[in-house]
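Hi C.,

You asked whether I'd gotten around to modeling the 296-residue construct. I have! Everything is below, sequence then structure, no commentary in between.
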Amino acid sequence: MPPDLNALAVFALVAEERSFRAAADRMGVTRSAVSQTIRKLEETLGIALVNRTTRSVALTEAGERLYAEAAPALAEVQGALDGAANLSSTPRGRLNLAVSSIAESFLSGPRLATFLDRNPEVKLHITVTDDEFDIVARGYDAGVRLGEVIAQDMIAVPVSGEQRQLAVASPAYLERHGIPQHPNELAGLRCIGWRRSANVAPYRWEFSENGREFSVAVVDTFTTTDMALMIKLAVAGAGISFGMEDSFKPAITRGELVPVLEDFSPRFPGFYLYYPSRRNMAPKLRALVEHLRGPR
């Protein structure tokens, strides 16, 4: 007998969470119920999908393959079911978004607040993350990222104006160490950089000169995953930092930070809400898209 879709959906949650308990919590059932479902699925298929210990859950090779191939299909099935269940014109239900931490204008609050005011039956959940992943496989309705990193098979709606990245430092730091005139001079200065995690290379600082784009691998005295900490350190005079202009704007307005190398910092397309192309878009997502396309 082939496994039912419910068993596959339970397996996909376990694979995503790497935890029976977390999967059970998301579904509102007991851990035992999840464990029994996975065991029956393994018996039906005749192969182990999950390796269990008292402390961890890991997928077997067969489990990894099943998850990779089944998760996108399950998401499409869920989309079709959502479309059938949401034929009402009233947006309702939980809307899950994965949003880049540097999408300042989107995360600032007012546009999201007015969306919720206009759609009181929608519950909005935002995961702020800079990890790159398939939003469909992870169960998100949509995401917000810079346009240049969005897959071409997604529909994208602009949610910000043009952006640019800036190098900034405190007036006190620049008074002590001088103002760099070219990005190549950054190699000899103390820099505060960003990296996605401790085991990956720091983000290379990107510039443009005479229409030619280039990047600089600065010697980062300090790196972090937290833009707010980068700003605090720069304001404190710890070095030169680099990031989205919108992130630095409040500190620049207060005179706590000063942009440098602006002639090498061109503007580029900004942030977009993106989502998969589905014929039956849920009213809750359609409402958000229409709201974001409206006046700002």
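If it helps when you're writing up: The radius of gyration is 23 Å.

Thanks,
B.
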